[in-house]
Amino acid sequence: MPAADVSPGGGVSGTVLARGVSQESLHLGAEGATDVIVRTITLAPGGSTGWHYHPGQLLAVVTSGTLTRTLEDCTVEVTPAGGAFIEPSGARNRHIGRNLGSEPVVLYLTYLLPKDGPLSVDADAPPCAGD
User: Fold this and answer.
1) For residues 35 and 117, is the Cβ–Cβ distance under 8 A?
2) Among 83, 129, 130, which residue's Cα sits nearest to residue 108?
3) Which of 21, 25, 61, 126 sits most deeply, having the most CB atoms within 10 A of its CB?
């Protein structure tokens, strides 16, 4: 049994909530007082997050379905179940997440936000989106 799965002291249990693989290096950071929030989001088939940005970074793991994100410059990133990525902070990193598939997209998210800040901020679509 791997060392991480045992506790010499006993009386400890754990559950892996989500596991994903990033195809790129991940770099997380926060300065000052930071709220760390963990939550799940489910996007129904045909669902959308709307254009928005986050005031802090977040780490996302896709556990079901395929998430399609359109970024500020209208490039598209597709992340299937088992994938992980970081969303950078700030208005210059607005994006929209869509479920273009036939099954729900389930995300496990860890937010690193300025203390008492919102999870996200609604934003207008960039000119290149034509929305």
Assistant:
1) yes
2) 83
3) 61
Cβ neighbours for 2, distance < 8 A, ≥ 6 positions apart: none
What is the DSSP track for 76-126?
Answer: EEEEETTBEEEEPPSGGG-EEEE--SSS-EEEEEEEEEETT--S-EE-PPP
pLDDT in tens, 55-65: 999 999 999 99
Tens digit of pLDDT for each residue in 17-62?
A: 999 998 888 888 888 899 999 999 999 999 999 999 999 999 999 9
Give the whole-angstrom CA distance, residue 96 versus residue 52. Answer: 6
Whole-number Å distance between alpha carbons of 60 and 65:
13
